[in-house]
Amino acid sequence: MAEMNRGERPLSPHLSIYRPQLTSVTSILVRITGNALIVGALLIVWWLFAAATSPEYFALADGVLTSVLGKLIMLGSIWALWYHTLGGVRHLIWDDARGLDLHTAYKLGWAVVYGSGVLTLLTVVIL
């Protein structure tokens, strides 16, 4: 068997070799926001559970959710919900084998980024 020289090349691709692209970063963020939405959902379930338990426990939960940190978490959850939704729509478009060319894929990626910001602002203003 011929000897192979492995000293010059990496054994497997590494993150330092590849430059992050918009399509890969936005796709990874869809997965991250999906998991982050669990935190917001658990906080809302906790708030509802506290409301059903006692006035004192509800006051504690309501105090946490209406604090500055709680409001920031809820704002982040609103953004994550819109981002995850728009990213899911983008993936559905790709599943139909549309928009796979580089130019359209980048347009869809920027639409997810800017669209989630605009929809978050609209949600905050309306609510």
Description of the molecule:
The protein is mainly alpha-helical and 127 residues long. The protein has a single domain (23-126), classed as Up-down Bundle (3 helical TM bundles of succinate and fumarate reductases), CATH 1.20.1300.10. Helices cover 76% and strands 0% of the residues. It contains four helices and no strands. Helix 1 (22-53) runs antiparallel to helix 2 (55-65), helix 1 (22-53) packs across helix 3 (68-95) and helix 3 (68-95) packs antiparallel against helix 4. The model has no long low-confidence stretch (mean pLDDT 90).
Topology, element by element:
Layout: H1 22-53, H2 55-65, H3 68-95, H4 102-126
Task: Output the keywords.
single chain, mainly alpha, 127 residues, elongated
Task: Give a brief rundown of this model.
By secondary structure, the chain is an all-alpha fold.
Strand count, sense and barrel status of the largest sheet are:
none
The class by helix and strand makeup works out as mainly alpha
Q: What name does CATH use for the topology? A: 3 helical TM bundles of succinate and fumarate reductases
From the spread of the alpha carbons, the general shape counts as elongated
Report the portion of residues in β strands: under 5%
Average pLDDT across residues?
90
Number of helices: 4
Write the H/E string, N to C: HHHH
* Radius of gyration computed on alpha carbons: 21 Å
Give the low-pLDDT segments.
Answer: none
